[in-house]
Amino acid sequence: MIDVRKILIVGVTGTLGVAIANKLKSEGGYEIFGTSKSGIQEIDTLQALYKLDLSDNSSIEEQVYAILKEQDELHGIVFASGLLKTGFSLLTKSEPELLQVNFLGVLTSCKILMRKYMNKGLKSVVFIASSSATNSDGGRLGYSASKAALVSAGQTLAREMGGKGVRVNCVSPGLIESKMVNDTIDPMSQLDLLNRIFLKRLGKPSEVASVVTYLLSDESAYITGQNIAVDGGMSW
Ligand SMILES: NC(=O)c1ccc[n+]([C@@H]2O[C@H](COP(=O)([O-])OP(=O)(O)OC[C@H]3O[C@@H](n4cnc5c(N)ncnc54)[C@H](OP(=O)(O)O)[C@@H]3O)[C@@H](O)[C@H]2O)c1
To answer: Would you say 135 and 172 are in contact if contact means Cβ atoms under 8 Å apart?
Structure first.
């Protein structure tokens, strides 16, 4: 029986990262650590904030080392970092950056963290993917591909890590009330998209955080290799 669970949230400064940290804090029984691109923001729910910029794969091992050096054990890891760039597919040049930050960088850091912590308490890993991984959203070529790759990697890791007692799941939010949505989807397009959502509203960051918290807990002890949509029904 674990008294206090240590959770690392990669991308803890984002809308969803903050919501997940707040939800864990309100549940109690968690020590929360986080990373952000710059590693300099003050967040009072955290025990420590580390710098982890996922845009350069060659520097990831060195950055993750700061976490490995200070933390002897970790029970859960959430990858809530991410980047969204949009545009007409034949004109965009952002695919390499999106694949690096949303997929390769996540995978590289996840593998380093798993190698250390799989025998030091690690029970649950959660990747925040996106409904764009499986929906055909125009204008999101690199983003959708990076999230689809993440879902696939999550399933492979779940299969390989199951025997070691580590569960790996993805959570795929749809349209959530957030800066990311407001910065990339104009109000008219948001209204159009509402028609695709069964529940006729955007999701709240706390509604994603609840599912992530469940996946980190023993309540979900028999769930692994899943991609759980939190999208009000948008993906159907
Ligand atoms: N918001 C939505 O409606 C929605 C829907 C579907 C999926 N998602 C996914 O959910 C996740 C979180 O979304 P969000 O709305 O919370 O996004 P957000 O507010 O833009 O936060 C993004 C987070 O990622 C970090 N980040 C950005 N570039 C990075 C890099 N190069 N290296 C390391 N970290 C980097 C940011 O760190 P800094 O603060 O240091 O920049 C921040 O912590 C993303 O993966 C996103 O794709 C979101």
So the answer is: no
